[in-house]
Amino acid sequence: MWQLAWELVRKFLWTLRIALPKVAVGWMFALLTIDFNRVAIVELGVAAVIVTTLLSIHYLLAPFQVVVGRLADTHPILGYRRTPYLLGASIVASLLFVLLPRVAFAMGDGLPGATAAAIALFVAFGLCMAVIADSYHSLIAETTDKETRSGVISVVWIVMILSTIFSAVVMNAVRPSFSPEAMQNLYNLTPPIVIGAVLLGVIGVERRLGREELAAAAARARALAPTGNPLVSAFTLVSTNRHTRAFFLFVACAVFALFLQESLIEVLGAEVFAMDIKQTTRFQPIWGAGILLGMLLMGLLSAALKVPKKTVTLVGCVAAASGFFLLGVIALLRLEPLLVPTLFLMGICAGVFNVGALALMMDMTVEGATGLYMGLWGVAQAFGMGGSAIAAGALHTALIGTGVMTPEGAYWLIFSAEASLLLTAAWLLTRVDVEGFQRSAGAAAAEPASSATNLDVATATA
Fold this sequence. Notes:
Elements: H1 2-43, H2 48-60, H3 64-74, H4 83-108, H5 114-143, H6 149-174, H7 180-187, H8 190-202, H9 211-224, H10 230-240, H11 242-259, H12 265-273, H13 277-280, H14 283-304, H15 309-333, H16 339-363, H17 370-401, H18 407-430, H19 434-461
Helix pairs in contact: 1-2, 1-4, 1-6, 1-8, 2-5, 3-5, 3-17, 4-5, 4-7, 4-8, 5-17, 6-14, 6-16, 9-19, 10-11, 11-17, 11-18, 14-16, 15-16, 15-18
């Protein structure tokens, strides 16, 4: 009994440890979305369109995940395929934050070249985030099994959400009011927080591969993907494998539908229900609390019951679609008392979906090409999130800003479209067979990998 209890404690502590890099990610994005966004626009007077464009650059660089995934699969460093890339990118990303306040002040002063410097910083940050995302998700995929993966993912994302709350508390403590010195002191905390969290989280987690294992892994990785440019290879994988194509479209479509509301929900409160800023500020925390609860419940259920991940994802997808249909009716009929409870329930559905979808992404990989496929799914997520950010503003301007529709009718149409997209995503997922994908993707490497492995091993041991 004591041995079983200790084993459970050990697994829980390991899960908390592997979640620590999300503390680093949560801190960096909290600084950008909570602090930098506000300070640059309000205190420094930088045009909002410039600031929002800078913050969206990392979406445009998401395809780099495919490149780094392919690179890490085929070019390990000191016997490790994930840890060096993750740690190196985290160090560089954290150091960029030390420079960010000075660049922001220069932009506020209108100094020549300040905006170009900011673009360079955010491009570097976007590249680092692509490396971090692919390496970290690949590490989780390679160090967990199908039975424990959903629970680990739940804890990882709960830790990230909690780290965002923690970051906000630290910000208010370190910088109670704005001043250039206080902002610089706050951003100077980034390297120790990020590097410390990543070091504690990943050092010793990944098993170092021996010489022969490295040769075999590199040969298999090369055989599992078309030769040439990694982006071209990824496109070939999507276009030639129906399971890969359906899953890529599912991820992009579902993420687009789920995140389209993020930029509109507070505006809905003001335009349809005449709510003040204090009332609408509650919406995202309520949505986030629902996501947190949904992921927690799903993590507990995954630990107790072996619920198929595809089933979990489909349930979350269809339930969220029902919530969006209801949200559209609430806007159309101005049913204000139902707004907040519906947002909370939709958050729970989104949390359930997140756990199932993220676990599926890790299942939809092939041994030897984990980085490449995780990069591919990362690109699909980025396309969905980036597209939703652009579409939200475009739809609001086209439907409400031009006066074509009333706010009530426009939001009903937008939310109904989101629900329809989620149902389309669910249909796409029904066309995906994880085992079929792994068989078809792995078969391409069976013969070539065998001969290439023998050649590489012979070369390595010569």
